[in-house]
Write a structure and sequence with these properties.
The chain is α/β, with parallel strands linked by helices. Helices cover about 35% and strands about 15% of the residues. The strands form two sheets. The chain has an eight-stranded mixed beta sheet. It has a two-stranded antiparallel ribbon with strand order 3-4.
Amino acid sequence: MERPLVLELKANSLDDGPGIRTAIFFKGCPLDCIWCHNPESKKAGAELSVATEDCIGCFTCKTVCPLGAAGPDRPGIVDRSICDNCFRCTETCPPKGLQRVGLEMPMEDIVARCVSDKVFFDVSGGGVTLSGGEPTLFPEWIGELCRKLKEEDINLHMETCGMFDYERVREHILPYLSSIYMDIKIMDREKHKKYCGVYNDTILENFRRLWKDSEELGFDLLPRTPLIPNITDTEENLKAIAAFYQELGVGKTELLPYNPTWYTKNAKLGLTLNEELQGLDSWQSPEKIKLCKEIFTEQGIECI
């Protein structure tokens, strides 16, 4: 059974579903959104993160690197054309400027960590959130994790991009969930391919099926749209999304204002920032967010 790497296990989260939650971020995503706020979650495999600003010039990484790829005298501290991700440098770097991204965690350890937070779930109406990356990449393994958490009477919530094999997810994951947040980013098929790396046909169809199955299977479904300047926050795109919701009878959505705190993450992974995002290192104005919300409220769709 294929299993995911864990990017982060974040306790006391207030932003990933109702109540106080423990959010589990898994590595790997079928989309390649150019604005991804967690670019370290895209690849399913482990990666090396390099914070060049933390380097103190001690040359410890150079002494342990078997390939000579690391050292203050190397481009970007680590020459990625040579590095084979053995991660020895991450074990010895004094300021922790070199870090492994993506850890193997036994399912039993994850369950134990979540159970230790159950008192906070119970008093706040919270629980465990499955996030990523994209947890549905590993439906059998995630389904088994859900089963074990459900045996502990823990509420389960999932965040998804919607690009998944519906039948496998319905069989292994959906029966355990109380709620789902699903992103609807771009309605235009070609623009979705351009900015997210894949066409949106499967995503839209999966949302239709989730919306239809939500009552039968007993989970709440909330669609969300990240507001990316000049890409997803255009009047044309938001009106198309609102029309899609009206067609299905969806009465509530959430808009996620652009958050620039991810802006420097790509460099740490050796990735180049897309030229269309150059200069997008500031927060969206309240006025712009208000205008975006009005597009939905004018169509009778509650916008939270």
